[in-house]
């Protein structure tokens, strides 16, 4: 029985320790002062440590719940393994021409820098030629940041210290249990089996475990809500007893979740308590009502009636009284729009808050059976008719209808009011001459129109000219990206492709270093050693084949200060004039200047620049000014380098970078190029800077499609009756029949 109790106590202690360890598990993420990633560990203690150069220093992998594998690497191009120890403490530690320790499954071997064995021993001290382990710890400096220390097989550690980040990895042997069955056995001293070891295999059964769990639950409840019977201290027990005597019968803190007792009488009394009391007339019968045991007073209404009278005490007109009452007691507005999802609701349903008033002008509704007569009689000969096939129970259709109402409102404006829109002259003339017309067809009333024109999804837009079908389009559904997402994870939410880069630098060694960063960040780049090679690159790029009517060009030009002043003037002249004949004032090219000269020394700033703060999700301040080099991206304020570089290079540079390119530097340069492109397009089109990056239900998209359909109709480009239109589904989700189609997030 004593053994069973000890086993139960051990089981509970083990469960408590395991629960405590589970609560303490958390991910570990550390960075260097420069912002580079230093440590990335998950809750199981597995992950990586990095040098400040970005190379992997430590790799920890999981074998099971308590055992791990450790691998330590050198900080150079070869990435040599300095130490590797698995879950069985088998591995080696050391570097070439230095002290090395080899750990095997049988023993260990220690050698010096000349590969001579200094010490050798086995794990089993009773084995033949077992040897003796060293009495002092074995310490091996793997490199300037990692130190290996061996005490015994269970105490093996490697300490990693680099740039303020210090971690110690325990690589020793870890077992689920340290004792054996022999430690819990007893020797028989009498009988025929005298001298034999009897193993103790007793363990708690299920009933004993359940009883122990119940006792533990009671103890936990006693700690959270102690009762007087659970306390032994006389003074505390007396205080708790008094509290129980007073509050155990307190009914005000209890809530009945169901209607019982005198609920009807209580509800009636509470309702009557909120109603105004009429003054007595003297002819009342029955018991006089009371309010909380006190006589009920008549409700005073003079302050309300004064608002319905003029200064002379005369009553206002009936219309004015109604307006005053509605102003004093406003009707709550509607919070949602009713949809005829199943035909139960009507568009003309009377709601106290009134119908939801939307911006724009309502569309004309045409039934599917009368569409042909409408196109033949009510529409002009030189007029494009957009028939919107919508459903009231579809969210995308409701969104498209709201945008169409805004377009319909623009079509009804006067010529003077159209000047505020960024429309072309031909589009303004077509709107003025009523060349566009919008109507709506509800697909929920009949399937005839959907079968006739093979409408697969809602919303779908049909364009008719002189009663003939010109085109069928869904306008892309929800907003979608035109190009697939960028391979660079830091830029994919901002742009579709990183800017094409031209690197102009005379130093070959720096060329190779900058190429590695460009390759790692998935940038496309070309190289040039001087100004003449750069002009050849520009000329070759201008002759490349156009993609989507866009001639490729260099969006980012990186110059080094080791170029001569003549090369700088040559490149500057080309960038300013384009082909040398006409100006190129709207150029989106970003010019970056690299300061690589040894004599150029600029102190680092104590704070990072505003673009880096925005990228990290931090606050920015207009009063804070960068006083030196940004320690994260290496960008220097241009005013600090005006006297350190030739004037021809300083005048053409938009951004100045100190020493060499980094990954954050390329991110800031790409963001600067994107801002220049969006700023130019928003100034030209007078619309939001994000419009050109997406397709979808926008006013510009509808006007563009109607103008294109009008031109095709005038040229006689009509669709045949057997034409099967393409089904352009929404970017994220759509409904086809009764099937809900979705697109996985972050997919190309």
From TrEMBL:
The family database entries (CDD domains) matched by this protein are listed as: TRX_family (cd02947)
Q: Which InterPro entries match?
A: FAM194_C, Thioredoxin-like_sf
Residue stretches making up the FAM194 C-terminal domain:
26-180
Pfam families annotated for this entry? FAM194
Coiled-coil features, chain-numbered ranges:
none
**Name of the protein in question:** FAM194 C-terminal domain-containing protein
Q: Which organism is it from?
A: Saprolegnia parasitica (strain CBS 223.65)
């Amino acid at each position: 029985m004593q053994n069973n109790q000890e086993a139960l106590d051990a089981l509970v202690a083990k469960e408590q320790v395991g629960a405590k360890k589970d609560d303490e598990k958390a991910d570990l993420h550390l960075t260097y002062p420069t912002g580079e990633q230093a440590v990335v560990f998950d809750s199981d203690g597995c992950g990586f440590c990095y040098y400040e150069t970005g190379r992997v220093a430590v790799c920890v992998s999981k074998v099971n719940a308590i055992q791990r594998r450790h691998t330590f690497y050198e900080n150079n191009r070869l990435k040599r393994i300095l130490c590797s120890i698995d879950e069985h403490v088998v591995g080696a530690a050391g570097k070439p021409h230095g002290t090395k320790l080899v750990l095997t499954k049988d023993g260990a071997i220690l050698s010096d820098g000349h590969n001579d064995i200094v010490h050798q021993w086995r794990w089993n001290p009773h084995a033949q030629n077992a040897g003796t382990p060293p009495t002092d710890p074995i310490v091996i400096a793997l490199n300037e940041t990692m130190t290996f220390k061996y005490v015994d097989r269970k105490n093996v550690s490697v300490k990693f210290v680099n740039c303020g980040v210090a971690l110690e990895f325990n690589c020793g042997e870890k077992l689920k249990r340290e004792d054996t069955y022999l430690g819990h056995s007893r020797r028989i001293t009498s009988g025929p089996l005298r001298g034999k070891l009897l193993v103790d295999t007793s363990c708690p059964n299920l009933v004993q475990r359940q009883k122990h769990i119940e006792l533990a639950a009671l103890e936990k409840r006693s700690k959270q809500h102690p009762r007087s019977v659970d306390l032994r201290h006389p003074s505390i027990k007396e205080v708790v007893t008094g509290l129980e005597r007073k509050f155990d019968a307190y009914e005000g803190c209890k809530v009945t979740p169901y209607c019982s007792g005198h609920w009807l009488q209580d509800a009636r009394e509470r309702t009557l308590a909120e109603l105004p009391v009429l003054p007595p007339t003297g002819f009342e019968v029955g018991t006089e009502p009371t309010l909380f045991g006190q006589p009920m007073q008549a409700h005073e209404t003079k302050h309300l009636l004064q608002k319905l009278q003029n200064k002379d005490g005369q009553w206002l007109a009936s219309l004015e009284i109604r307006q005053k009452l509605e102003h004093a007691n406003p009707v709550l507005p509607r919070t949602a729009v009713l949809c005829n999802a199943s035909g139960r609701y009507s568009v003309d349903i009377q709601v106290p808050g009134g119908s939801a008033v939307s911006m724009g002008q309502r569309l004309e509704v045409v039934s599917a059976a009368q569409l042909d007569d409408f196109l033949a009689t009510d529409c002009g000969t030189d007029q494009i008719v957009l028939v919107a096939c919508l459903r009231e129970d579809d969210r995308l259709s409701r969104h498209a209808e709201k945008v169409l109402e805004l377009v319909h409102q623009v079509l009804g404006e006067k010529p003077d009011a159209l000047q505020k829109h960024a429309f072309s002259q031909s589009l303004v003339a077509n709107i003025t001459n009523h060349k566009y017309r919008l109507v709506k067809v509800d697909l929920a009333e009949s399937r005839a129109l959907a079968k006739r024109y093979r409408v697969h999804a809602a919303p779908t837009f049909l364009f008719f000219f002189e009663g003939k079908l010109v085109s069928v389009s869904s306008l892309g559904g929800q907003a979608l990206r035109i190009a697939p997402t960028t391979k660079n994870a830091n830029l994919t939410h901002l742009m579709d492709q990183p800017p094409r880069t031209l690197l102009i630098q005379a130093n070959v060694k720096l060329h190779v270093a900058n190429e590695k960063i460009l390759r790692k960040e998935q940038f496309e780049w070309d190289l040039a050693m001087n100004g003449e090679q750069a002009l050849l690159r520009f000329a070759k790029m201008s002759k490349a084949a156009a993609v989507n009517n866009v001639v490729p060009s260099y969006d980012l030009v990186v110059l080094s200060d080791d170029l001569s002043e003549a090369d700088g003037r040559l490149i500057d002249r080309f960038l300013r004039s384009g082909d040398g004949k006409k100006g190129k004032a709207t150029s989106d090219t970003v010019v970056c200047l690299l300061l690589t000269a040894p004599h150029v020394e600029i102190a680092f700033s104590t704070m990072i620049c505003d673009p880096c703060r925005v990228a990290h999700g931090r606050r920015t301040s207009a009063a804070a000014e960068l006083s030196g080099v940004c320690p994260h991206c290496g960008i220097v304020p241009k005013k600090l380098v005006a006297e350190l570089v030739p004037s021809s290079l300083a005048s053409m540079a938009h951004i100045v970078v100190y020493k060499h390119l980094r990954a954050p530097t390329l991110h800031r340069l790409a963001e600067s190029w994107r801002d220049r492109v969006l700023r130019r397009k928003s100034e030209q089109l007078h619309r939001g800077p994000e419009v050109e990056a997406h397709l979808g239900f926008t006013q510009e998209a509808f006007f563009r499609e109607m103008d294109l359909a009008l031109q095709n109709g005038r040229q006689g480009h009509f669709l045949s009756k057997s034409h099967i239109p393409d089904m352009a589904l929404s970017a994220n989700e759509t409904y086809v029949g009764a099937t809900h189609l979705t697109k996985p997030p972050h997919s190309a």
